[in-house]
Every structure is written in C-alpha cells, then in structure tokens.
Amino acid sequence: MLPPILLNDDRFERVRYDQPNYPIYIRRGLLSLYPDYRAPNHWHDDIELISVLKGQMKYNINGEIVDLKEGHGIFVNSGQMHFGFSDEHNECDFYCILSHPILLCPIPPFENDFVLPLMQNKSLPFLELHPHISWQKEILAHIGSLYPEKGHPSASLRALSAFARIWALLWEHAPEDDGKENRQSQNLAIIKNMVTFIQKNFRKKISLEDIAAAGAVGQSKCCKLFDQYFSQSPNVYLNRYRLEKSICLRDPATPDGIPFFIISHSLYQRL
C-alpha cells in the first residue's frame, strides 16, 4: 500500500525515502488506494518514474494529460506539477520510483555536464515511455528491476546503478533545449503562486479576485489554470483544501517526525 502523500503549503511533496540517508523511494501501488481514484496534484525536486503493470490510468503533468496503458510508463522531470487519476475508476497496478538527482553528483563536473542540463531542460518536462522504442523499453526494464530488489542489502547501491543508466539514456535522447521560457513554464509558476497563496491564507476569507491577484492574472485565466491543472475551480480547490486541513488537525495519526533526506549541496539550497 502506498503511504499518504505529505505536502507542504506550496504543494511541494516531502518525500519519505526508503532510508533516510539515501534519497530513493520505490513503491508498488494501486490507483484504487487513493480517494476517488485520484492522487493529489503535487510536485517535488525528485525525478519520478512510473511503470504500469496492469490496467491503465491518466497522468496529468502541468495540465497536459497522457494515457498510460499496461506496459507503458512515464518520466516526470524535477519541479513539475503532476498526478495520476481515473475518472472512470479503472484500476491500475503500477511501480512508482522517486530519486533525487543529487545521487548522480559525486563531483561538480557530473552536476554541470549531465545533471543540471537535463533537469533544467524546458523542452523535457516529461516523457511518455513506450515499450516498442528500444531505449525507452530499456528504461522500463530498469524501473521493473528496482522493486524486486528493494529488500536486498545493497538495494540502494543497485538503485543508484539503475538510476544512473536511466539518466544516461534520457540525457542521450533528450530534445534540444532552446533556453526560452515557454508558456507552459510561465503558467506553472503562476499556478504555484496561487496555490501557495491559498494554502497560506485558507483560514481567512479569500475571494477569487484575491487568488487571481496572487498569480498576477485576471480572474478568467485564474479559473482556466485551476481547471487545467486541478480539474476544478479555485473555490472548489479552496474548500477541499480546508476540508483536508480539518481532517489532518483532527487525526492524531497524521505522520510527523518522519526522517527525511536533508540535502546540503550546491544543486539545491532549500530552506
């Protein structure tokens, strides 16, 4: 069973790694374990890899929806808003792998030459993985090998090896980054600002005008972006978030004090 997703107020996920000293998360899950067959929309610095074993689901990345079928998968780059769901309540059995790119930075040249160029590639927010494309099939095979080895004494080392190979394949086949900030990247920044505003001020009286102002956009675009990224209006999002917070406050079992990997590296200086 997948553990609950822990989110900060800006929808940033606090990933609960398998071991506190190694930023690697390996799980097998069912979509039906999430309320209404829908995972919460979230983002994180980690790279996310999904491989569908049985069934199917839709995956929303920055408002763009792809159909993930059995045998297919997806790579989601760092910092992207995403979630899996099924409006038809179709079951999906899948592997979910999260790994922080800091694993691949033993020395600065690795970070500068291989890691940052891929993480910051604005032309690669995500990539659907197809089993009929040889190099993508290889990535899917690496994803599939990680879960069975999870309990091995050297699981973290084996995961590092697989992740390095996956990263090499992505780096070799990544589209060229023209370095231009595209509209999708701009919209992602806007929706994050509006979500952050809601989650910092949900106890107060908030109007649609206030939410739109937090993103420096008009009310019409505000509603359009919430529909695109969350499939709901800003007011529905606000009310559901208030409900989530009230449940958390009433539930003494809400996890706290879980060991998280603390990153102190030039790749990230997160406060």
From TrEMBL:
<dbReference type="Pfam" id="PF02311">
    <property type="entry name" value="AraC_binding"/>
</dbReference>
<dbReference type="InterPro" id="IPR003313">
    <property type="entry name" value="AraC-bd"/>
</dbReference>
<dbReference type="GO" id="GO:0043565">
    <property type="term" value="F:sequence-specific DNA binding"/>
</dbReference>
<dbReference type="InterPro" id="IPR018060">
    <property type="entry name" value="HTH_AraC"/>
</dbReference>
<keyword id="KW-0238">DNA-binding</keyword>
<dbReference type="InterPro" id="IPR011051">
    <property type="entry name" value="RmlC_Cupin_sf"/>
</dbReference>
<dbReference type="GO" id="GO:0003700">
    <property type="term" value="F:DNA-binding transcription factor activity"/>
</dbReference>
<protein>
    <submittedName>
        <fullName>Helix-turn-helix transcriptional regulator</fullName>
    </submittedName>
</protein>
<dbReference type="InterPro" id="IPR014710">
    <property type="entry name" value="RmlC-like_jellyroll"/>
</dbReference>
<feature type="domain" description="HTH araC/xylS-type">
    <location>
        <begin position="192"/>
        <end position="246"/>
    </location>
</feature>
